[in-house]
Amino acid sequence: MSRTSRLLTLLQVLRAKSRPATAAALACELEISERTVYRDIAELTALGAPIQGEAGVGYVLRSGLFLPPLMLNADEAEAVVLGLQYVDQRGDEVLSKAASDALAKIAAVLAPAAQEALRNPTLLPGPRGYGYPDNAVPLNVFRQAIREQSKLHIDYADVNQVPSQRLIWPLALGFLNEARVVVAWCELRNAFRTFRTDRIAAAREQGERYPGRRSDLLRQWRKQFDQDEHERFTPDKN
């Protein structure tokens, strides 16, 4: 068994364990020495595998994001890189840093062919554009409210600068070419709406979770969005 195959097999064995497995048990199952198990565990951990435990106690693979070697081919690697570059261009500082960190972690475990695709991609994102209008409210405020399903009071101004106060259920952040928007349910309109973040002058938590599951609400919004787009581009037969 090659070293790469052995590492992948060890990951699969750990992934199937619900309780910590000792080095002796792993060595027996993989038909390798305990010394090799310790060395492989150390190497996988250095690559980012979420392995927890210690010699004499046992090891367990915790839940977490980890891409083992050979998981991505050249096309898949380029798709990931293109997506992360797009995020770096259009995200805020938090997302740009996250994209850079994720790319570094992925690069550390890619196979040689995929490494070449990473260094010299055949796919490139478009130009950065002219930037985004400044936000009075940091995007982290919306991110946190979305994750916690918290209602938000916002002071909003429409395209004609007409101000209004809204109580919204934030569902997602959208990153468009020239604007960032919050997808939300608006209690004032009793409907799904999108709000440009640069037109939100203030945002305050209501101190109340909105009802239902965010995933279900987002699914309803997508259905409504698709329906509106279909009607928009369907020719009138009359």
TrEMBL record:
It comes from the Bacteria. Coiled coil: none annotated. Residues 6-59 form the Helix-turn-helix type domain. InterPro entries: CBASS_pafABC_assoc_protein, HTH_11, WH-like_DNA-bd_sf, WH_DNA-bd_sf, WYL_dom. PROSITE patterns: WYL (PS52050). Residues 139-204 form the WYL domain. This is Transcriptional regulator, DeoR family. The lineage of its organism: Bacteria, Pseudomonadati, Pseudomonadota, Gammaproteobacteria, Pseudomonadales.
